[in-house]
């Protein structure tokens, strides 16, 4: 018997075939993450804890708690030693509410946009958009979670990028007035105001969002140097005489008339002022970057507005209204590849 099996050819596994099996369990891994967040299980696993102890503490089913915790360990969220489970370091960093870079709320909310309705994909391809199920949350709770998620991503990657970009502008030492357009909780605008010590700043966003942003401004102690304006940036005047206007991932809401939006931004700047904009730039005929394309699949099938710009689309709209010069570069973030534009208002 041994002699016979020894003579068999080696089984060759194509890594691409293995990838297909991995893909089949990928949604389970995502759902383990979302369930851990929903039940706030990670909040209880900063220190080692057994399944029985956790189930007792949280009023859960003991056997299914153990099964879930084993899966969360297999899925790369926890470590298990003897009978005890504990969060891995990145879970403590990004998935605990007390963390300044808590991403859990934003990830949990993305579920509606990225994952809910996956089982209707085939039907929507056959028949077209099906009615969406709106998330069931109050408006205030929605703004709160949105700002919390945006605050985490701003702290993690956008504020340092904004400061670095602004420091490339000649005369940045003299910035007096800065606008954070569509800035959510406003951490980017506040970081810029802190960097350029003589500057004052304004956050312009929807009224519910600036209400929420007020808490962040207070906690930074910047009330005297950083104001808010609530309104609709597609129609309302954001003020005048800015040296720097920063906008990131928000101009899709103005894409129905991009030229008018760019004109409003140009008018709001001082002569010689700069508009710095960060956004996705789709390439390869709408098939790249993959994270951006895949995350928008379900909302696009549901017929919701296209949230992406084509590479170079915003720079063209800037040039059309008179920004000159316009410098563009690509920026890699943990999420996707972005385009960053520095667009100058010509001196009078
Ligand atoms: C994806 S978030 C980006 C936030 C922030 N710029 C960042 O990069 O973290 C889009 C922001 O645009 C704001 N926004 C969308 N439409 C708007 C409108 N018509 N007027 C004012 N703000 C708007 C939203 O409230 C939200 O804060």
TrEMBL record:
Gene3D superfamilies the UniProt entry points to: Vaccinia Virus protein VP39, Winged helix-like DNA-binding domain superfamily/Winged helix DNA-binding domain
Domain (O-methyltransferase C-terminal): residue spans on this chain: 144-293
Domain of life per record: Bacteria
Pfam families reported for this sequence: Dimerisation, Methyltransf_2
Cross-referenced InterPro entries: COMT-like (IPR016461), COMT_C (IPR001077), COMT_dimerisation (IPR012967), SAM-dependent_MTases_sf (IPR029063), WH-like_DNA-bd_sf (IPR036388), WH_DNA-bd_sf (IPR036390)
One GO MF term attached to the UniProt entry: protein dimerization activity
Keyword terms: Methyltransferase, S-adenosyl-L-methionine, Transferase
Record-linked PANTHER family: O-METHYLTRANSFERASE (PTHR11746)
Protein name as catalogued: O-methyltransferase
